Amino acid sequence: MLQPHLEHPSASRGAPRAAPDRPRTALIGALVALSLLGATGCAGADSGPRREAGAGGVTFESCGRTVVLDRAPERVAITTDAIADTLFALGVGDRIVAKTRGESAPAPELKERLAALPGLGTRNPSVEALVAAGPDLLITDQVEKVSGRTGSPSIAELEGLGIATYVVGGGCAADLTTDTSGLEALDTDVRQLGAVFGVETRAEALADRLLGDLDDVRRRIAREPGREVAKVSQVGGRLYVTSGGLSDDVLERAGGTNVFADLPGQFAPVDPEQIVARDPRAIVVDDFTATATGRRDAIAFLKRTFPTVDAVRNQRILVIDAAKTGARGSTRPVEGVAEIARFLHPNTSRPH
Predict the structure, then answer these.
(1) Which intervals carry biased composition (Basic and acidic residues) (predicted)?
(2) pTM of whole model > 0.85?
């Protein structure tokens, strides 16, 4: 219940076979200023993607590394289903050739297409599976997944195989104890990926639409007081609450006041007593399965565990697709802002 797949693939290594022809990658090694990373996430919006003159190539920034491709990627691997949302919205989703079984459920309209793709592992991709899939580019939501630890390949190892790595905004932190950027990183990713794939016009339109959707929510709730809210997840039998990062930004843009925003990092482990003590007026629960069963199980758990909490007593509980609150590199958190705003401030919802 409420639990993503967190197991790591086997750390075993076989002799990888030769990688197929793909865009040549080169790492220039220019470090992006830390202040810039803090403001824009991994991508570095001030430098931005650049088309290489006369060569049809592209340069992009990722976690302090400058990556040069001699042509747009034709085969892409992803480390979470939710990244596919943005790629399909950009019109390049058919270039996805493999994926890991990530923490979030795929969008319903993409579920069958993504299920048919070769798997790269449970969470972190394996070298063997990547070589077999033959991607030009690996897009990941967390640099830890390409750190060379727990059975995953390193960025340098992937480079040696001719596979470039793009870490989406907010994913450059080594672990979840570090706070990171919010939804502003998605705008940078959409525009930069548009240049990487040569679909700049479509990317600009998508980025502008997403900003428009966020502005619409902001205008509708502008006169509403903040509603005290806690966002809860259960992973590996432990309770976690959102404390910072993308998920906290989604709550705030939806008109919520996060009662656990004072805790460090992006997610903080808590005991049930801490939730009881802070007594939130509303609770948002991450459902990593995004199913009716997951929703029922989540509500039953809250009723069992927190019968005296204001949100539970007054049935102010929203069980939401986890990708809509915290999937980096996905368009779904923008949908999450609108959904949580309707939940917290029902009188401001537009008529359908």
Answers:
(1) 1-10
(2) no
DSSP per residue over 18-84, as a string? PPPS---EEE--PPPPHHHHHHHTTS-TTT--EEETTTTEEEEEETTEEEEESS--SSEEESSTTHH
Cα–Cα distance between 201 and 194 in angstroms, integer? 8
User: Which segments of 161-239 does DSSP mark as H helices, in order?
Assistant: 184-196, 200-220
Separation CA 312–CA 340 (nearest Å): 16
Question: Which phi and psi angles does 197 have, rounded to 5°?
Answer: -95, 0
Q: Would you call 299 helix, strand, or coil by DSSP?
A: helix
Residues 6+ apart with CB under 8 A from 181: 38, 39, 40, 41, 169, 170, 245, 246
Q: Which domains does the chain have, with CATH numbers?
A: 210-348 (3.40.50.1980)
The position carrying tokens 């537009």 is 350
pLDDT, tens only, 275-291: 999 999 999 999 988 88
- Residue 66 in this model has a pLDDT that exceeds 80: yes
Q: What is the DSSP letter of 183?
A: T
Q: How far apart are CA 262 and CA 256, in angstroms?
A: 14
Question: Tens of pLDDT along 232-265?
Answer: 998 888 999 999 999 999 999 999 999 999 999 8
